[in-house]
Amino acid sequence: MDIAWIQVFVLTISECVAPAGKTVCQEQQLELEFARLEDCETALEQFVELKEASATVIVDADSAHCVATARKVEVFANLAAVAAANEDRENWVTPDLSKAGEDFQQAAHQERLEQVPECSDTASVYPCRQGLIIVEEAPSRAVEVWRLESD
Question: What is the Cα Rg of the chain in Å?
């Protein structure tokens, strides 16, 4: 096991929450960590929308944000090393690698690619495919292809 620094994005929500029927609110901050900036920003938007819909919560939009930072973490060589390091923990569950999702966009493209006929067989009926590329419609203008010739 090694130690590494990884980039994380910390979502900070600053809010003031009032108990039902009260006019004074209590200020608090919520922090969550995300691996991707897009996930952090999506969560920020959803939290702000959800909190603004509440009659007892005031969100400080100026203090609610996503910030890039880093965390020091343990890095394991493989899944067996992770399992060995955590086997004595009470709620440890070994991840099921067979359920690891494949790239859904690549799978959808491959599925559609199989359904679309080859362009050379369709006599310019679109959509069609040329190798791994799906041609949706006929080109509207001539396209020049530049190629670097190597010696």
Answer: 26
Task: Supply the mean pLDDT for the chain.
Answer: 81
Return the pLDDT at 125. 79
Query: Can you tell me the distance from the alpha carbon of 41 to that of 104, in angstroms, rounded to the nearest whole number?
Result: 22
| Residue 16 to residue 25: CA distance in whole angstroms | 5
- DSSP structural state of residue 36: S
Are the beta carbons of 51 and 17 closer than 8 angstroms? no
The pLDDT score that the predictor gives to residue 69 is 92
CA angle 56, 61, 63 (to 5 degrees): 110
Q: Is the pLDDT of residue 41 over 70?
A: yes
Element (H, E) at 37: helix 37-52
pLDDT digits (tens, 9 = 90+) for 104-132: 777 888 888 899 888 888 776 788 888 88
Burial class (CB in 10 A: 0-12, 13-18, 19+), 9: buried
Q: What's the CA gap between 7 and 69, in Å, rounded? A: 6
**Domain boundaries defined on the chain:** 2-90, 104-135
Q: What's CA 61's distance to the chain center, in Å? A: 23
